[in-house]
Specification:
Layout: E1 2-10, E2 13-19, E3 24-28, H1 35-45, E4 61-68, H2 73-81, E5 91-98, E6 103-107, E7 110-112, H3 114-124, E8 125-128, H4 139-150, H5 152-176, H6 182-202, H7 208-220, H8 222-237, H9 242-254, H10 261-290, H11 295-315, H12 319-337, H13 339-385, E9 392-404, E10 407-416, E11 424-425, H14 426-429, H15 432-450, E12 454-458, H16 466-479, E13 484-488, H17 492-495, E14 500-509, E15 512-519, H18 522-534, H19 540-564
Parallel strand pairs: 3-13, 3-14, 8-12, 12-13
Antiparallel strand pairs: 1-2, 1-4, 4-5, 5-6, 6-7, 9-10, 10-11, 14-15
Helix pairs in contact: 2-3, 4-13, 5-13, 6-12, 7-11, 8-10, 9-10, 13-15, 15-16, 18-19
C-alpha cells in the first residue's frame, strides 16, 4: 500500500509529508484549495509527464516521493527483474524535476528509467482521475480492461500476436523490394549485367591512373623535351662548349699542378668537373634517346584515362569504392536471378506467420469470451451495489474479420440502465455521473482481480448526490476493506466513510500562496464534515448532524466489511 507522500517545491506546496493508512483515505478541502495538486504529485512521482508550472516559483527543482510498504508479488517480480533491492518489502519511488525539463527517477535510491518506474507503479497503484470515465467510451480502452482481467495468458498471447504481425510486416517489406513486373525485372537484370561487365572489362588497378597521367604528360611533350635535351647536349659537347672549356683548363693546370699542393688541388677539382660534365652529357643523351614520341601510344594512354574517368564518375571515386559497387551489383544480380525462389520463400514465411498470428488471436479470443462472461457478472453485481436497479450489462465481442495487434476481436460494452430499454453501447446511454459509477464498479472489480495494492479516485462523485452518493460511499467502504483507497471528494456522505481524513487548505500571506496538508483527528473531522454540510452558515444542529453522519457511516462501514468477510 501507499504509506506516505513527500512533496517539496511542487506547485504551491513548499514542503509536505502526507501519511496514508490502510482502508479508505479521504482528501477534502474547499474548491480550489489544491486537492488535485496532491494527485498531481502522485502521478508525477509515478513517471507521468509533468506540465509547466509544477516547480514552485523561485526554486530550481521539485521533488515528489512515494513510499509503498507490504508490496505484492507482481511488484516484487518486476523489482527482481530490475535487480532492485526490496528486502524489507518496501519501495520508495522518487522523482526530481528540474527547471530545464530534465528529471531523475529513483527507486530505493537507485536511478531507473521512467518506463521501469511506470511498470512497477502499474503493479502498485491504479489511479482514476477526473474525466477518466470518458475513456470507457473508447473501444480500445474497453478491450484493454477485458485483457487485463484475463491475466497473464492473454497478455502473452497479445505480445505473441503483435510480434508475429511485426515479423510478417518485415517479410512483406522484403517482398516489396522485388520487382513484380517481369519486364521491369528483366530491365533491372540487363542494367546490372551491363554495369558488372563494364567494371570488370575496365579492370581499373590501384595507382594506374596516376601512372598514366605521368606517361601522358611525357608523351604529350615528347618533341619539346627532345629538342631541349639535345640543345643541352650541344651546349656541353659542341664547339666552344663546356667540355671544351674544362679540357683546355686541364691542359693549362697540368703544367703547374706539381709545383704546389694548392695547384694540384685545383687540377683535381677541374678534372672532377670535366668528368661530371661528361657523365651529365651521357645521361641527358640517354634520356633523350629513350623519349617515346609515338602518337598512337599517346592516343592509347588518353583513351585509357578517359575510360578510368568514366568508370569513376559512375561507380566510385577510387578503386575500393568501384570494387564495392561491383560486389553489390553482383549480389543484387544473384538475388534477382534467384528471384522466383526468394519470392516463394518470402510468401511462404508471410503465410506461415499469418497463420500463427491467427492461431494466437483465436486462442486469445477464446480466453476473452470465457473471461468476458465472468467479468460481465462481476461488473453487473458491482453496479447493482452502486444503485443501478435491474441494470443490464454485457461485454459484446465480435470477430473483426482480420488479425491486428490487439487480436481479432471488436468489443462494445452494452448497457441498459432502465427496465424495458433496449441495450445500447455504453457511450450512447450513460451520463457523466453514471459513467463515474460504472468506472468505479469496473475499477473495484479489476483491483481485486489484479491484486492492486492501492486505488486512487479523484472526485469519483462527479454528477451524483443523495442516495446515489450514499451507494458510492458504501461501495468505497467495501473496496477499501481489502484494498487501500485514496479518494478526493466534495460529498459529505463519502467523506464520512473515511478511515483516514486529510484536509487540504490554501493560505494567502501577502503576495504568496501556500497549501497546507493536515491529517484530521475526531474534532477536525467533525469540523470539516460540518463545513461540507453547511457551507458558510454553521449551526449547532449542523454540527450535531455532522457528528451523527460520521457515527452512522462508521457503523455502516463496519457492517459492510463484516458481511464481505
Amino acid at each position: 500500500m501507499l504509506s506516505s507522500l513527500h512533496v517539496k517545491n511542487f506547485a504551491l506546496i513548499d514542503e509536505a509529508d502526507i501519511s496514508f493508512e490502510k482502508g479508505l483515505n479521504i482528501i477534502t478541502g474547499e474548491t480550489g484549495a489544491g486537492k488535485s495538486i496532491i494527485l498531481g504529485a502522485i502521478v508525477t512521482a509515478l513517471g507521468e509527464r509533468s506540465g509547466k508550472g509544477i516547480i514552485k516559483e523561485g526554486t530550481d527543482s521539485a521533488i515528489c516521493e512515494l513510499t509503498f510498504t507490504d508490496i505484492g508479488d507482481e511488484a516484487r517480480r518486476i523489482c527482481d527483474e530490475e535487480q532492485i533491492d526490496i528486502d524489507d518489502g518496501s519501495v520508495t519511488l522518487s522523482r526530481k524535476i528540474m527547471q530545464n525539463g530534465r528529471s531523475v527517477t529513483r527507486i530505493n535510491g537507485e536511478t531507473i528509467s521512467v518506463s521501469t518506474s511506470r511498470a512497477i507503479a502499474g503493479a502498485l497503484i491504479d489511479i482514476y482521475g477526473q474525466n477518466e470515465h470518458q475513456s470507457l467510451q473508447d473501444s480500445r480502452s474497453q478491450l484493454a480492461i477485458l485483457d487485463r482481467f484475463c491475466g497473464q495468458d492473454a497478455s502473452s498471447l497479445l505480445k505473441e500476436t503483435a510480434s508475429l504481425l511485426s515479423e510478417k510486416k518485415k517479410f512483406e517489406g522484403e517482398l516489396d523490394k522485388f520487382p513484380t513486373d517481369e519486364s521491369a525485372r528483366s530491365r533491372e537484370i540487363d542494367r546490372l549485367e551491363f554495369e558488372i561487365n563494364e567494371i570488370e572489362e575496365a579492370a581499373v588497378r590501384e595507382g594506374e591512373e596516376e601512372d598514366l597521367k605521368e606517361q601522358f604528360k611525357i608523351l604529350a611533350s615528347a618533341r619539346t623535351i627532345k629538342e631541349n635535351l639535345y640543345g643541352a647536349i650541344d651546349a656541353l659537347r659542341g664547339e666552344s662548349g663546356a667540355l671544351d672549356g674544362t679540357g683546355a683548363a686541364l691542359k693549362c693546370l697540368t703544367h703547374v699542378s706539381a709545383i704546389t699542393e694548392e695547384l694540384s688541388g685545383l687540377y683535381d677539382r677541374t678534372a672532377d668537373l670535366d668528368s661530371m660534365l661528361g657523365d651529365l652529357c651521357s645521361d641527358i643523351e640517354r634520356y633523350a634517346e629513350n623519349i617515346d614520341d609515338d602518337e598512337e601510344k599517346l592516343a592509347e594512354v588518353e583513351k585509357r584515362l578517359d575510360l578510368i574517368s568514366h568508370i569513376k564518375s559512375r561507380y566510385g571515386r577510387n578503386v575500393a569504392e568501384i570494387d564495392r559497387f561491383l560486389e553489390e551489383d553482383k549480389k543484387a544480380l544473384q538475388k534477382l536471378s534467384e528471384c522466383d525462389e526468394e519470392i516463394a520463400k518470402l510468401k511462404a514465411k508471410i503465410l506461415e506467420t499469418q497463420k500463427k498470428a491467427e492461431k494466437a488471436a483465436a486462442k486469445l479470443s477464446g480466453i476473452r469470451h470465457e473471461q468476458g462472461k465472468v467479468l460481465t457478472k462481476l461488473i453487473t453485481e458491482a453496479l447493482e451495489e452502486l444503485g443501478f436497479n435491474k441494470i443490464f450489462f454485457d461485454i459484446e465481442l465480435r470477430d473483426a474479420g482480420t488479425v491486428r495487434e490487439s487480436g481479432s476481436d471488436e468489443i462494445t460494452f452494452m448497457v441498459s440502465l432502465n427496465p424495458g430499454a433496449a441495450p445500447a453501447p455504453l457511450a450512447k446511454v450513460a451520463s457523466g455521473g453514471e459513467l463515474s459509477r460504472i468506472m468505479l464498479a469496473i475499477k473495484s472489480v479489476m483491483a481485486h482481480a489484479e491484486e492492486i495494492d492501492s486505488l486512487v479516485f479523484d472526485e469519483i462523485d462527479t454528477g451524483i448526490s443523495g442516495r446515489t452518493a450514499q451507494k458510492v460511499a458504501e461501495r468505497l467502504a467495501v473496496i477499501s476493506g481489502s484494498t487501500q483507497v485514496i479518494c478526493i471528494t466534495h460529498l459529505s456522505q463519502i467523506a464520512a466513510m473515511a478511515d483516514e481524513h486529510i484536509l487540504i487548505e490554501k493560505t494567502v500571506v501577502g503576495n504568496s500562496t501556500r497549501i497546507d496538508v493536515t491529517s484530521l483527528d475526531d474534532t477536525g473531522i467533525n469540523k470539516e464534515l460540518t463545513r461540507m454540510l453547511s457551507g458558510a452558515l454553521v449551526t449547532r444542529t449542523v454540527e450535531e448532524g455532522a457528528k451523527e453522519l460520521k457515527e452512522l457511516a462508521d457503523s455502516r462501514k463496519k457492517d459492510l466489511r463484516s458481511s464481505v468477510k
